[in-house]
TrEMBL record:
Organism this protein belongs to: Paractinoplanes ovalisporus
Pfam family, one: RCC1_2
Signal peptide (from-to): 1-19
Gene3D superfamilies for this protein: Regulator of chromosome condensation 1/beta-lactamase-inhibitor protein II
Statement: the UniProt record of this protein carries the keyword Repressor: no
Alphabetically ordered keywords of this record: Signal
Protein's name according to its UniProt entry: Alpha-tubulin suppressor
Zinc listed as a keyword: no
Lineage, opening ranks: Bacteria, Bacillati, Actinomycetota, Actinomycetes, Micromonosporales
């Protein structure tokens, strides 16, 4: 779930959906598994595999990275117990748990190896939530599928579940999307931000504690560069480098003290944030100087500060200034550095940290990705 990881370019404004993805490594974390795309395009997964979320055709857990087929990929995103990714030719594939149709293949049967969503290419980005998925196509249209109890598919709650993609409205200006537990947010190429689905804790940022079944604009700002949805919270970065969060705050995942917030609140006084990723009740963000900061739920050491104390303000992870922003947060977190090394920390009950053990790691440890 973590959710979900939407990566943003801090000072560039909203990126058009048609832009080609950069040749950079990507990492995604689910509840008990991890997947990563290396810079040359190979895809690797490890950790828990009870739903086939490792994509290797089995339900056998892995304590170290195992390659998923031989195809080349540009991106991957991890849901609670499933994944979706885009291959270099622009086709979209999903695998793992599928009880709500979140794989988009027209069924509700789990898949232990990647299955294609539709038959066409042209997919630009994808985000996997708990039981629903959303993706942006290169022409700027937005599509969602899976569970829709709270209107998180953005279709006006016309269906309870959708096993194939449904278009969200008719706009062709969507730039990015993020799927949370039961809510969805997306940015448009004009820099506006829109959210829909469950807002029982204010996670839509609309000042409400109910829900919306179609996209509703968050405030009036036109400089959002990216957004990330956690369990019941959401965070976003603006082009001026400011960071904003809203929703549930029981663990401090908004980066401020107090209870829930139903509208965006600024995190800290600085304006040097470049990317942010949220998953479950933990958030991590990078600054323009390459430092990495995390906060929120720290029960398994996922804040990365060597403790298990929940943090209500951004807490720096080590002293490195080489974090790329290609990171993913959840009960365990992972991030790439500029030297292409991958580091993970936090919960490790299913070997999802990838260090060959099942020992929780309260500080980053390097993952040995095969060459």
């Amino acid at each position: 779930m973590t959710l979900i990881a939407i990566l943003v370019a801090a000072l560039s404004g909203a990126v058009p959906a048609a832009a080609a993805p950069p040749a950079a490594a990507k990492v995604a974390t689910g509840y008990s598994h991890t997947c990563a795309v290396r810079a040359e395009g190979s895809l690797w997964c490890w950790g828990g595999n009870y739903s086939g979320q490792l994509g290797d055709g089995t339900v056998t857990s892995r304590t170290a990275p195992a390659r998923v087929g031989t195809a080349t990929w540009t991106s991957v995103d991890g849901g609670t117990s499933f994944n979706c990714g885009i291959r270099t030719e622009g086709t979209l594939w999903c695998w793992g748990s599928n009880s709500r149709g979140q794989l988009g293949d027209g069924t509700t049967a789990r898949k232990t190896a990647p299955v294609q969503v539709g038959t066409s290419g042209g997919w630009a980005s994808v985000s996997a939530g708990d039981s629903h998925t959303c993706a942006v196509r290169t022409e700027g249209t937005l599509w969602c599928w899976g569970f829709n109890r709270f209107g998180q598919l953005g279709d006006g709650a016309a269906v309870y579940t959708a096993t194939t993609p449904l278009q969200v409205g008719t706009a062709t200006s969507w730039a990015s999307v993020t799927a949370g537990y039961a809510h969805t947010c997306a940015s448009r190429t004009d820099g506006t931000l829109w959210c829909w689905g469950d807002s029982s804790m204010g996670q839509l940022g609309l000042g409400i504690l109910s829900y919306r079944t179609t996209p509703d604009q968050v405030g009036t700002a036109t400089n959002w560069t990216g957004v990330t949805a956690g369990y019941l919270n959401t965070c976003g970065v603006r082009a001026d480098g400011s960071l904003w969060c809203w929703g549930e705050n029981g663990y401090g995942q908004l980066g401020v003290s107090g209870t829930y917030q139903s509208a965006p609140v600024a995190v800290g006084a600085g304006a040097t944030w470049s990317s942010v990723t949220a998953g479950f009740d933990t958030v991590c963000a990078t600054r323009t100087d390459g430092s990495l900061w995390c906060w929120g739920n720290n029960a398994s050491g996922q804040v990365g500060d060597g403790t298990t104390t929940h943090r209500f303000a951004p807490t720096r992870v080590g002293t490195a200034t080489t974090w790329t922003g290609n990171a993913s947060a959840g009960h365990h977190n992972c991030g790439f550095r500029t030297d292409a090394t991958l580091w993970c920390w936090g919960n490790n009950d299913s070997a999802q940290v990838g260090d060959g053990t099942t020992t929780a790691r309260p500080a980053p440890v390097q993952v040995a990705l095969p060459s």
